[in-house]
Design a protein that fits this description.
Chain C: GO terms for molecular function: ATP binding; ATP hydrolysis activity. The complex is a heterotrimer of chains A (about 300), B (about 450) and C (about 270). With about 300 residues, chain A is mainly α. Chain A has one domain: ABC transporter involved in vitamin B12 uptake, BtuC (Orthogonal Bundle). Chain A is about 70% helix and about 5% strand. A two-stranded antiparallel sheet of chain A has the order 1-2. The longest helix of chain A is centred in the N-terminal third of the chain and has 39 residues. Chain C is globular. Classes of the chains: A mainly alpha (about 300), B alpha/beta (about 450), C alpha/beta (about 270). Chains in contact: A-B, A-C. The interface between A and B is large, with 44 and 37 residues.
């Protein structure tokens, strides 16, 4: 075992670096989904589309600004701006227009409605951006590569993936934790998450909390997509793939727990990267294996609270 | 008086009988398709949604464009053509249902199927059952004609075996000293089969190559960072990948950014369709293929005027160059025109029924802008393969091959009646001596 | 005579054949402590639910301070000044006791402040004061899910009180609380409410509590009010004792009735 570790320590070190970047993106999507479920108690299948549309919007906005001759750093502004726009516009539209009507309905109906929403958004995305791959990797290229020592060799990593992605994810985690722990609105969101009825009984307007939370969650998903867009190529089907993975992360984390989402994302991200080195055949399955393993031991997820049913 | 009446009635009957029996003697007049139809309906299955729509939608545009041209010129045999499109994306169950519906309810005359090998494998038995000529216009699986007889199915293009063997031969010819290789293919039938073909042939032609990594990421994976890191660490001499579409674009971008192209030579047999999108991001000096011979800078196309007319018409309508699915669609349509011409001539101007049409396809030789394609007795088309090394010229804003080798179809296609994997095992290194020299520039 | 703070007239509500409210007429007088007693299933909680907007009567009217509150959502009724505590305390388990009470203050004052903290000085002070009145000051920093039953109950009531309602409806405020603590808790509660001029209606099963702290008692039976009056009179009524006191309390032994629900009606 020790010999194997020695031999593979370097490789596992690489896996760690790759896993961090991957985990960062996964976290951004999952945390929004988790928050939305925690507060609204709706599993929003369309969340993946928000990720995809955030990515497309960021790529388009970046290309637009570059075409106007604006300096390269505006590409980063474009990322954040696109995410804010997508979240800020689609969030309220979806919450007010669609979700409002299905609160308190059966979960099956809610799933169907959010699934229909997902399909509508996918089609809208195809209508606007077409079916050919779209990409804008300028923000990635701008920061260049970092040569990470690997024995006697060096492995170039992109600075964007090594620093920006984990950095933004960490900032989001810290910011979100601070917001939910220390600010009034954050505390109210947690209250509504814990016990919506009690909150309403006190006169808190739960519906405004829903609007705020959903918009925020949508913005986080869109930001995840925007951050991912320089690293990847945007094609139809991206939303679907993202949502399935986020479910695995959210289920592992425990619904409504943001630290849980972070730990889960790390577990799954690093697990997946390690698999590429050690057992590539299992790479795709690893997130779900982790999810099943965790749920077998703790059905409520790593950090979830066992909900006592109120009779 | 009565005799005359009787005679005339009998005579009338006799004339009528004669007319009927006479018409029975006319070839093909007994079947339902003796009459020239009001329109020639063609059922076309292609990907209109999902990741493979990057192929399917341009192919559809091509079909629409060409059918318009054909109809402007008077149709096929004087009959206007109409396309009925079916989306392959919902899956084979849906596709099979649609295939039947198009043949039995809509009465299509010819079916074009499909992009996905899974779709083709599902549709060819149907073409047998329904006796409907089916042109396999794009799918690559070698299994179709190697595992059974399909009298009504014809593939008007190459397929996986030549598409993989030709780049391998190119590599062996131009960089014979490589010792290590890694594969990164999409995890589904095409990715797996194209690896099996390559590996079998490579082990036969150059035994002892060490495979340092076998990576099969999920179809549609948005991120190859980990795979790229692993390949950077492993330092193979050659990296083989049959990725396509958005996946290939992502892979090339990520690999190029981290200088993987500096360390390893890439072999990308189906790169052509992604080169426009990649533009200058595609590094020069790596081996690229196009599933055929229809490069924009083909060194000696059979009919340069026709090639440039096609390319320019497409560019005018779609604002981009046609990619190989477009050329494959063009080939299928050209074959259909040629076959109808041949069948109508054989019938002295009459309209062919299903059997006669299928007979016309067998052994058909039809022209493409770049060369000629022959359909073998087993239905498989023989299409030359051109492989080259990526380079940039002033003519195009994207990579095109230089130092191209034109591989004659017969050299790189499995002989009739044999299975590809078996045949590949019998290859000998002296095959390389037969490979033509690269055309410089 | 005090005027009526809450007026219910002719309330009717049936659930699948069972009449939970069968013509309820009741005036809750300003400043009084009104106890509601009766066997399980008599419709007591139903009445509280109708008064706070969780249920809508099929017939009848409810007015608060002269204005009808029929059809208003619970949130709106809270805003009008009617507070409620529940049989099972509904606390926010992720928050501390202090935060729970502060949330009630915030709900009263307005919660839309994304950057400023929940426990800002003014609210922290007020919440601490409320906790002190209920003797919960030492538990201020404890998480709500770590409390014993009695403390949870008190915190729930403290939150309801922090909303500064003018009418407070309490569903079994002492249930689940150890007998030794009961009287002390109710004493505290009564004192706080009288000091702040809050009118209280409470559903109660403990007759000792009712006797000591209620100004009037309303007896519920099968969806109707069977008796209404000062505790001394009502509780001495043999019919009431038969129907109601069989559930709990010292009267059971004296009346010679077996304890238990069988004494009441389904």
């Amino acid at each position: 075992m020790a010999g194997w570790l020695e031999q593979n320590a370097l490789l596992l070190g690489l896996a760690l670096l790759d896993g961090l970047a991957y985990a960062a993106l996964v976290f951004m999507v999952a945390v929004g989904l988790n928050m939305v479920f925690g507060v609204l108690r709706i599993i929003n299948i369309a969340h993946g589309s928000l990720f995809a549309i955030g990515g497309y919007a960021a790529a388009s906005l970046g290309l637009f600004l570059a075409a106007r001759g604006l300096p390269d750093w505006t590409g980063y502004v474009a990322l954040v701006l696109a995410a804010a726009l997508v979240g800020g516009i689609l969030g309220p539209v979806i919450e007010r227009g669609v979700l409002r009507r299905i609160y308190g309905h059966e979960q099956v109906l809610q799933l169907l409605v959010t699934f229909a929403l997902f399909m509508i958004l996918e089609d809208a995305q195809k209508l606007i951006w077409g079916v050919q791959p779209v990409s804008n990797d300028a923000p990635l290229r701008l920061l260049g590569t970092v040569d990470v020592p690997f024995g006697e060799d060096v492995i170039p990593f992109t600075a964007y993936q090594l620093f920006v992605l984990p950095g933004v994810a960490l900032a989001t985690l810290v910011g979100l934790a601070w917001f939910l722990r220390r600010t009034l609105t954050g505390r109210v969101i947690v209250a509504v998450t814990t016990d919506r009825e009690a909150a309403t009984a006190m006169g808190i307007d739960a519906r405004r909390v829903f609007l705020l939370t959903f918009t925020f969650g949508a913005g986080l998903a869109a930001l995840g997509g925007a951050l991912a867009s320089p690293t990847t190529t945007l094609v139809p089907g991206l939303g679907a793939a993202t949502i399935v993975l986020s479910f695995a992360v959210v289920a592992t984390a425990g619904l409504g727990q943001i630290e849980g989402a972070a730990i889960s994302a790390l577990l799954i991200g690093i697990g997946r990267s390690a698999a590429v080195y050690l057992a590539p055949e299992f790479e795709v399955v690893v997130p779900y294996l982790i999810m099943v393993a965790v749920l077998l031991v703790r059905p409520q997820g790593l950090f979830g609270v066992v909900e006592t049913r109120r009779v | 008086m009565s005799t005359q009446t009787q005679l005339s009635r009998r005579g009338a009957l006799a004339v009528a009988a004669g007319a009927v029996s006479g018409s029975l003697l006319w070839p093909g007049s007994g079947s339902a398709q003796a009459q020239k139809p009001a329109e020639l309906k063609v059922g076309i299955t292609t990907f209109l949604s999902g990741p493979a729509s990057v192929f399917g939608v341009p192919a559809r545009h091509t079909a629409e464009m060409l059918f318009e041209e054909i109809n402007r010129a008077g149709g096929i045999g004087g009959v206007p053509v109409r396309a009925l499109f079916v989306d392959e994306a919902p899956g084979t169950d849906h596709l099979v249902g649609e295939f039947r519906r198009l043949v039995q309810n809509e009465g299509v005359h010819v079916m074009f199927a499909s992009i996905s090998s899974g779709s083709c494998l599902a549709c060819t038995p149907l073409s047998d059952e329904l006796r409907k000529t089916t042109i396999l216009w794009d799918c690559g699986t070698q299994r179709i004609f190697e595992e059974g007889r399909h009298p009504y199915a014809f593939r008007t293009q190459g397929y996986a075996t030549p598409e993989v063997l030709a780049p391998l031969l190119y590599l062996l010819k131009t960089r014979p000293d490589f010792r290590t290789l890694a594969v990164i293919n999409q995890d589904y039938a095409w990715g797996r089969d194209s690896w099996e073909i390559w590996k079998t042939a490579m082990d036969a032609l150059k035994p002892g190559v060490r495979v340092v990594a076998e990576l099969f990421p999920r179809l549609g994976a948005p991120d190859y960072s980990t795979e790229v890191t692993r390949l950077l660490a492993a330092r193979p001499d050659v990296i083989y990948s049959t990725h396509w579409g958005g996946d290939l674009v992502t892979l090339v971008r990520q690999a190029a950014e981290r200088r993987l192209f500096d360390r390893s030579t890439f072999v990308l047999p189906v790169a052509e369709a992604s080169l426009q999108i990649l533009g200058r991001t595609m590094p020069a000096g790596h081996i690229i293929g196009t599933r055929g011979d229809h490069w924009n800078n083909h060194p000696r196309p059979r009919d340069p005027a026709r090639l440039s007319r096609f390319v320019e018409s497409y560019r005018r309508r779609q604002n981009e160059y046609p990619i190989y699915p477009c050329h494959h669609m063009y080939q299928a349509i050209s074959a259909m025109q040629a076959a109808y011409e041949k069948a109508i001539a054989a019938k002295g101007g009459g309209w062919p029924n299903d059997q006669e049409l299928a007979a016309a396809f067998r052994g058909l030789e039809f022209a493409t802008p770049t060369s000629t394609i022959t359909l073998r007795e087993d239905g498989q088309g023989l299409e030359d393969q051109i492989v080259g090394v990526s380079s940039f010229t002033d003519r195009f804003p994207f990579a095109v091959p230089k130092d191209m080798i034109i591989f004659p179809a017969a050299m790189v296609s499995t002989p009739v009646g044999q299975k590809s994997v078996d045949w590949l095992k019998t290859l000998k290194p002296d095959l390389l001596a037969q490979v033509p020299a690269p055309i410089a520039g | 005579m005090s005027e009526a703070l809450l007026q219910a007239r002719g309330l009717h509500l049936a659930f699948g054949g069972v009449k939970a409210a069968d013509g309820i007429d009741l005036d809750v007088l300003r400043g009084e402590f009104l106890a509601i007693i009766g066997p399980n299933g008599a419709g007591k909680t139903t009445f509280l639910n109708m008064a706070t907007g969780y249920l809508r009567p099929q017939a009848g009217t409810i007015a608060y301070e002269g204005e009808s509150i029929l059809g208003l959502a619970p949130r709106a009724i809270v805003r009008r000044g009617i507070g409620r505590s529940f049989q099972l305390p509904q606390l926010f388990t992720e928050h501390t006791v202090l935060e729970n009470v502060a949330l009630a203050v915030a709900a009263r004052e307005g919660v839309w402040s994304p950057l400023r903290p929940l426990l800002r000085p003014a609210w922290r002070e007020e919440a601490t004061e409320v906790l002190a009145r209920f003797g919960l000051a030492t538990l201020a920093g404890a998480r709500a899910d770590a409390l014993n039953e009695g403390a949870r109950k008190l915190t729930d009531i403290a939150m309801a009180v922090a909303l500064k309602p003018r009418l407070l409806l309490m569903d079994e405020p002492t249930s689940g609380v150890a007998a030794a603590e009961k009287m002390a808790i109710v004493e505290t509660l009564a004192r706080v409410l009288r000091e702040t001029g809050v009118t209280a209606v409470f559903v109660e099963h403990d007759m000792d509590v009712v006797e000591r702290f209620a100004d009037r008692v309303a007896v519920w039976s099968q969806g109707r009010i069977a008796a209404l009056g000062p505790p001394g009179t009502v509780l001495a009524d043999p019919a009431v004792q038969r129907e109601v006191i069989g559930i709990e309390g010292p009267g059971a032994a004296a009346a010679g009735l077996p304890g238990g629900i069988a004494a009441g009606h389904a």
